[in-house]
Amino acid sequence: MAAVDDGDKEVVHLPELGCLELRSHPLRGRGVFTRNPISKGTLVHISPVLVFGREEYRDYGKHTCLDHYTYCWRGGQYALALGLGSMFNHEPSGSENVGFVRDMDRALIKYVALRDITAGEELCICYGPNVWFEVVTDNSSSKSATAESPPETPLDFLHSFQL
């Protein structure tokens, strides 16, 4: 059997954290939580996506509950994240503890811890500034930057990775 090249577009090595679980949040509904601490910079999850063409989404997808779970994709397309990717709840920009990067060439979304995350904490991403629901901010374990570490935006942090 030939060795697998890590640069191969056909092979995606999935993180094996073994500590993520779906739980019901009293205000936000289902969400992703961790049983163990997760360190800043950890690749938390990789979601394959189903890509919908612009016309297909306009004619069908946006008229269903899928509309609440899709990501904008290139060329006016939309993508539905499979796995846990559609289960991360929202926190406003600067309060989220997980960031994401769209790998459009391989039809994936990669989720990375933006800060240290404590056991029992909900993992949340930022959906952007224009959400279609009342924002419930209940990520009580959110940590702010300390004097020893200058604040950085989630995008600054994510750009430091070769994903």
TrEMBL record:
It comes from the Eukaryota. Pfam families: SET. Residues 18-128 form the SET domain. InterPro entries: SET_dom, SET_dom_sf. This is SET domain-containing protein. It comes from Coemansia brasiliensis. The lineage of its organism: Eukaryota, Fungi, Fungi incertae sedis, Zoopagomycota, Kickxellomycotina.
